[in-house]
Amino acid sequence: MKGPAPEQHGTADPAGLAIETNRLVKRFGHRSAVDGIDLAVPRGAVFGFLGPNGSGKTTTIRVLLGLASATSGDIRVLGQSMPAALAAVLPDVGALVEGPGFYPSLSGSGNLMRLDSADRHASSATRRKRVADALDRVGLSHAAGKKVRAYSLGMKQRLGLANALLRPRELLVLDEPTNGLDPQGTREVRNLVRSLAAGGTTVFVSSHLLAEVEQMCTHVGVMSAGRLVAQGPLDELRSSGQRQVVVETPDAELATSVLARLGLVPAAIPGAAGPREARAVLDGGLDGPAPEVIVAALVADGVRVRRFAIEDSSLEDRFVSLTGEGFDVVG
Ligand SMILES: Nc1ncnc2c1ncn2[C@@H]1O[C@H](COP(=O)(O)OP(=O)(O)OP(=O)(O)O)[C@@H](O)[C@H]1O
Question: Quick one: DSSP state of residue 314?
């Protein structure tokens, strides 16, 4: 059975898409890990692929990169049909997925030299410089000669990023790149993503952290149980939420019934309403009753109003309503 169509924000120009899927499905046995998704990632975007653990992000990424085959559906990466054009497209795509297999007994630099030499498009004359530059970009120059065995998880994650950056790329695909990083490392990855995007690289980055996506991305796609439930520019998703009437009062129950009489639906947003707060959704914003009408009705019925506000629902509220799940807001 098909679910409701995902919310689509903004207009997508197929010619300007770095990644495009059409009804992409990946099944494991009878279970659909990816259930008919239509991704549209504009060129030049930093696209946050957001969803709770197990929602199908890694599986989608593996299929996009040809690491797993799709059950059905079409994929285009950098304008070319996949997996048919895999060999032509992959040199332009840098990827960080479940860390490449590093040799623990080789240094960070030694590992990158080895990985670079496996790339037949990479000139050996400039290899040493390429490796040094990539290590520098991820802040690992100081540990270039250290054996990977002695690297922390965060350092290995950065080495994976350095590997993705060995060549200039049109598209970077990063699966949870800040996993295992401390706050400083997380900030560095964020800055790196921003600087790569400023240089014209499209970045497709998965995360289960809403705050991370908010800080680093221009666009977002929200996964929930294998479905893409919303996608578009972050700003548009942010402004598409409903507005809410917030009344702080010792008479919350009475206030709620007055609001309901005015046609405002009591908001059931987890954790949002305290015992002294009545919240109701002001659907559509402009079509609802005017604020002065609401306040007058509350006061006329004897509600002691201590604070009255009309607030935009937060992006977090928005995602909770889309996925039915909470998100980790911080790491
Ligand atoms: N090789 C596999 N065989 C069977 N089921 C799988 C396989 N890989 C993934 N799945 C299942 O597919 C679903 C989606 O998993 P996936 O790893 O893509 O989610 P995710 O959003 O990336 O979550 P996480 O951040 O935890 O990796 C999960 O239920 C998972 O158990």
Answer: P
Paired strand residues for 19 = 41, 77
Main-chain dihedrals φ then ψ at residue 268, nearest 5 degrees: -110, 75
The model scores a pTM over 0.95 = no
Provide the ipTM: 0.94
Residues 6+ apart with CB under 8 A from 290: none
- Rg (Cα) of the chain, in Å, rounded? 24
pLDDT digits (tens, 9 = 90+) for 158-202: 899 899 889 889 999 999 988 878 888 888 888 888 888 988 899
Distance CA 251, CA 258 (A): 11
Whether residue 272 contacts residue 208, with contact meaning beta carbons closer than 8 Å, is answered with no
Measure the CA–CA gap between 219 and 17, rounded to whole angstroms. Answer: 13
Helix (H, G, I), strand (E, B) or coil at 243: strand
Question: What CA–CA distance (Å, rounded) separates 205 from 166?
Answer: 18
Whose C-alpha lies nearest to ligand 1, atom 3?
28
Ligand 1: which atom is nearest the Cα of residue 34?
Answer: 14
Those residues whose C-beta lies under 8 Å from the C-beta of residue 279, and which sit 6 or more positions away, are 244, 245, 246, 247, 266, 267, 269, 272, 273
Task: Tell me the best of 26, 50, 55 to mutate to test the pocket of ligand 1, counting ligand atoms within 8 Å of each CB and taking the most.
Answer: 55
> Which residues fall within 8 angstroms of residue 25, CB to CB, at 6 or more apart?
32, 34, 35, 36, 70, 71, 72, 73
How far are the Cα atoms of 39, 40, 64, 207, 221 from residue 24, in angstroms, in the given order?
A: 9, 12, 10, 20, 14
**31 alpha carbon – ligand 1 mean position (Å):** 10
- Give Cβ neighbours of residue 216 (< 8 Å, ≥ 6 apart): 46, 48, 190, 193, 194, 205
